[in-house]
Amino acid sequence: MALKDFPVDECLLQGNASCPGCPATVGLRMVLKALGKKTFLVVPACCTAVIESLYPHTSFDVPVMNIAFEAAAAGASGVEAALRQQGRSDITVAAWAGDGGTYDIGLQALSGALERGTNFIYICYNNQIYSNTGIQRSGATPYAAWTTTTVGGKTEFRKEMGEIVLAHHIPYAAQTCISYPEDLYGKIQKAKSIKGPKYIEILAPCPPGWRFSMDKTIEMGRLAVDTGAWSLWECENDVMTFNGKSKLLLEKKVARKPIEDWIKYQGRFSHLFKPERDEERLKAIEEHTDHLWERYRKCYGKI
Amino acid sequence: MTVMMDTGNRIAAKAAVMAKPEVVAAYPITPQTTLVEAIAEYVARGEYKGEYICVESEHSAMSACIGASAAGSRTFTATSSHGLLLMHEMLHWAALARLPVVMCNINRVVGPGWNIWVDENDSISQRDTGWIQFYCSSNQEIFDTVIQAFKLAEHEKIVLPVMVNLNAFILSHTSMPAEIPDQQVVDDFLGNYVPKWKLDIENPTTFGNIIGPAHYYKVRRAMQDAMLNAKKLIPQITNDWKKASGFFHGDLLEYYKCEGAEHILLSIGAIGAESKTAIDELQKAGHRIGLARVRVIRPFPTEDIIKLGKQADLIVIDRNISIGSEGALFNEVKAALYGESDAKVTGFIAGLGGKDVTYKDIETMCLKALKDKVREQQWYGLEG
């Protein structure tokens, strides 16, 4: 669907408590436009718990159940079971969790819910850090990125959560990014139309967490895709398709931009450039990204 | 009415299924397993028509119950020991979210080392989570208490989760007869669950978002008021169930031969049942001693304990220990009596780690209490 045809109704209301340039609110607006008002949202501890605003107010025009950090998928399982008993197949259950709540503390509950075939959409908005608690490292934080718990830069590469999900062979899994609203909207809509467990991960560049200017959120997402730091794909019934620019990268129809084009705008990588270039780590990032894409080509490319 | 000759776990499962929860979510742990296996058999036979979610942990079991309850469904789960402790965070969550989840907990020792026998440290350590806590002493009581638990939890003046505790093996795996009323009796007693609040697309509300100190303080107070309401409503609901089913096991406490007693023994769970035999023997020997078996530890039956303290000296047996302090019941009984009674209270720790506590042991403890003037809690049966 083209941007101009998106529903005008807003389920995320104005005056919420998000930071300027917040990618989560961009994602939430699109997600809720695609899901509509007949949606129950399950939210664990994450930035969205702040965006919701302070009791007795709320910035959501859909019912929201907050739940403990590691419990989004399990809580959603209960909601979904109750709705099935009540015959309410018209209501979509969506868990909306950050990368900390997905990659790390919530991974077990997520895996359990996917394996059980829970009929829900699990959406991870991935800003690659524990942003709500003040920018700590998560399993999604990229190599060499500064966080408050990786002061000299993270020493490990991020894990591939999407591929962990794929190992569950659920009907639908996808990766998207807030910078591609049509891609995001289309994937949420598709997920809504499919029965069973669905997983969608949205890259969400976080200005205060990544240390870039708050007017550059969308640009940071696009550069992540252009440089291959992030990929757009969907996997329906085990059939994998890379989308948009990521498809062109996979098929080598366009060259992957150097990863430096993305990280040079982010203060969290500034120690790789000042006081002098850290050639070793810059090379390691580039090589790791090349390796990642070669593996993608082997696993998911046309032979 | 039928008589069911079966284990405590299977009778608990029967009660749970007859209460018709729309959602059960559970994870296996010894010695709770035969309870959830029994529910799976009801599912297989088509006798339980609700959802049965086999989750991947107890934390997720309670989280799923929370989700189902928030969506407006009656929910049930069961666990034990380490499972209960893994749920700890979500026990607080269910209670603070004011969700009337009902759970059976099979009282089992906490490791290390691994020990599957009975003591009550698992549930006693969860006293502050905001759950109403019952302790049963027979399979009949298990059945009746599970039914009562749903009624209490869902009562509009309570709306709190309820934990029904039964001792590992002594009750969970021991067959005893229990009279099972007709389904209609249970249906009429419980009625349909009408949630006071729920996730509702017609009334989109955000539950559990950030709350400031002033509101949070009020929320806590409301929970305390609900617990105090439960204290008043437990006698009413247990009596209503007596009218419906014929069974009564006491309300907050069960009194046994307390009339004219100069000493009253307070005990919990299976020791409470064994205590009756001990009291019989002690009375035969001419001692003026009775029993008050504590069925409910949250809300704590402060007023009833004060009455007992005004009548007699008290003897307390705890199958738990708050390390660094005392047994929980001993501690709380003395706190209840403060400024109200000068009764002498003698406390014993007994049966930790599943060590057997026979009526003879209970007699010995009582005789020691009658004789000694010792005020500090004593560990009975350490030797051997």
Question: What is the strand and helix layout of this fold?
Answer:
The complex is a heterodimer of chains A (303) and B (384).
Chain A: H1 23-35, E1 39-43, H2 47-51, E2 64-66, H3 72-85, E3 92-98, H4 99-104, H5 107-115, E4 121-126, H6 161-166, E5 172-177, H7 181-193, E6 198-203, H8 207-210, H9 217-226, E7 233-236, E8 239-242, H10 244-250, H11 260-263, H12 279-300
Helix pairs in contact in A: 1-7, 3-5
Chain B: E1 2-7, H1 8-18, E2 23-26, H2 33-44, E3 51-54, H3 58-70, E4 75-80, H4 81-86, H5 88-96, E5 102-107, H6 121-124, E6 132-135, H7 139-154, E7 162-167, E8 175-180, H8 183-190, E9 206-207, H9 213-245, E10 253-256, E11 263-268, H10 269-284, E12 289-294, E13 296-298, H11 302-311, E14 313-318, H12 328-337, E15 345-349, H13 359-371, E16 378-379
Parallel strand pairs in B: 2-3, 2-4, 4-5, 5-7, 6-7, 11-12, 11-14, 14-15, 15-16
Antiparallel strand pairs in B: 1-8, 6-13, 10-12
Summarize the structure.
Chain A is α/β, with parallel strands linked by helices and 303 residues long. Chain A is 37% helix and 14% strand.
Strand composition percent of chain B:
15-25%
| CATH overall fold name of chain A | Rossmann fold
Global shape of chain B:
globular
Mean pLDDT of chain A: 97
CATH architecture grouping of the largest domain in chain B: 3-Layer(aba) Sandwich
Low-confidence stretches of chain A: none
What integer is the average pLDDT of chain B? 97
CATH superfamily of the largest domain in chain B: Thiamin diphosphate (ThDP)-binding fold, Pyr/PP domains
What is the annotated CATH architecture of chain A? Answer: 3-Layer(aba) Sandwich
Sheet of most strands of chain B:
7 strands, mixed
Radius of gyration of chain A: 19 Å
The oligomeric state of the chains shown is: heterodimer
Report how far the terminal alpha carbons of chain B are from each other. Answer: 46 Å
Structural class of chain A: alpha/beta
